[in-house]
Write a structure and sequence with these properties.
Length: 361
């Protein structure tokens, strides 16, 4: 028996309502209604109801008509018809119109009711799992459509640029003109390389189990500083790092690096042009079996209308820097895999702050 399983029993005979609740209240959560209007109110306020028993001979509305009418607004509960007059026409009408899962003849026996509930619950669970799988499949199809378009567009553009430059270069004898074309080709190849890195991150998140290791944030952030050293020197961006770790922390290093690099690359790319003191700050505090990582900058920020969209696949909120639309989408999926969370604050023209919380594994 499942005490949490909610049942709605509809019958205009008071004795049947009392008897049903008395017999099954210890095994299930029982709701009763003496008419279909009352039953709809109960369904509205109790979305967890899984099984509906309804008498066929109800005043004002037949059970079949009621079950058919509520099917659109309440498609999940499994419908069972109670009837003392189960003629063939009623059976056919109920199957075609009301999608009745089962009939129970009145007067009913406890064993038959319990059997009907258990079978209906199994059917409910199976349908719920199927619905979840269908939603996941639809999401996968939608992502595949976007992915196919992105690949054809973002791979073709830099390749087309390179091929065009090569064709033009074959016609030039002037070394300066050729150098201009080489610069264009270099830009296209950088874009292509960045896109391939994004694809690598995308598929890294779809591998199976996590590969856990102990994380030393002093070492990890030291590597991160070295990685961005050339950028900070050329762009004159101050890069401040702070580590506070007094206990061991275990995580998937590759996925953790993916999160850091996507957040930091955005912080460096979207600085305000001409700002006298651009900065990027990275900090971590490891305590209570959790790492709290903060990445902040004083860049261009994120428009309020875009905040809710920044984690969507292929979303690009600014034309200031070329992006592939993978970065923050990959960050969110990485955090889902690590059972972490992310918060963002981005006041207009004052920069952006991301706060990431990841539990130790």
């Amino acid at each position: 028996m499942q005490k949490e399983l909610e049942i709605l029993y509809i019958d205009d005979e008071a004795n049947n309502l009392v008897g049903f609740k008395a017999n099954f209240r210890y095994d299930y959560v029982i709701h009763t209604a003496s008419n279909t209007t009352e039953a709809e109110k109960i369904l509205l306020s109790n979305p967890g109801i899984r099984v509906i028993f309804c008498d066929q001979r109800m005043p004002g509305e037949l059970g079949i008509d009621f079950l058919y009418r509520i099917k659109k607004d309440y498609p999940k509960p499994i419908r069972i018809l109670l009837t003392a007059y189960a003629d063939m026409n009623t059976v056919i009408d109920a199957i075609n119109k009301g999608h009745i899962f089962r009939f129970v003849r009145k007067p009913w026996m406890d064993e038959e009711i319990i059997s009907a509930i258990e079978e209906a619950n199994k059917f409910y669970v199976a349908n719920s799992l199927l619905e979840t799988r269908n939603q996941e499949l639809q999401k996968a199809y939608d992502e595949l459509d976007k992915f196919a378009y992105s690949v054809s567009h973002d791979l073709r553009d830099p390749l087309t640029g390179i091929l065009s430059a090569v064709k033009l270069g074959l016609e030039f004898d002037n070394i300066d003109r050729i150098h201009e074309l080489l610069t264009l080709m270099d830009s296209s190849l950088v874009s292509l390389d960045a896109y391939i890195d994004s694809l690598r991150d995308y598929y890294l998140l779809r591998r199976g189990e996590l590969m856990l290791s102990e994380i030393n944030f002093d070492e990890l952030f030291g590597n991160v500083r070295q990685f961005y050293n050339m950028y900070t020197q050329n762009k004159e961006v101050t890069f401040d790092i702070h580590v506070e770790q007094k206990e061991p922390f275990h995580c998937d290093r590759a996925i953790l690096e993916l999160i850091l690099h996507n957040l930091l690359s955005n912080a460096f790319k979207y600085q305000q042009k001409g700002h006298p003191d651009p900065f990027v700050k990275l900090s971590v505090n490891v305590s209570d079996q959790q790492a709290t990582i903060i990445v902040s900058d004083n860049g261009i920020g994120i428009s309020p209308e875009h905040i809710s969209d920044i984690f969507k696949l292929f979303f690009r909120g600014s034309d200031q820097a070329k992006g592939m639309g993978f970065g923050l989408y990959n960050v969110q999926n990485a955090l889902i895999k690590l059972q972490g969370t992310i918060e963002v604050q981005s006041p207009a023209n004052t920069g952006t702050t991301f706060m990431v919380r990841i539990p130790s594994k």
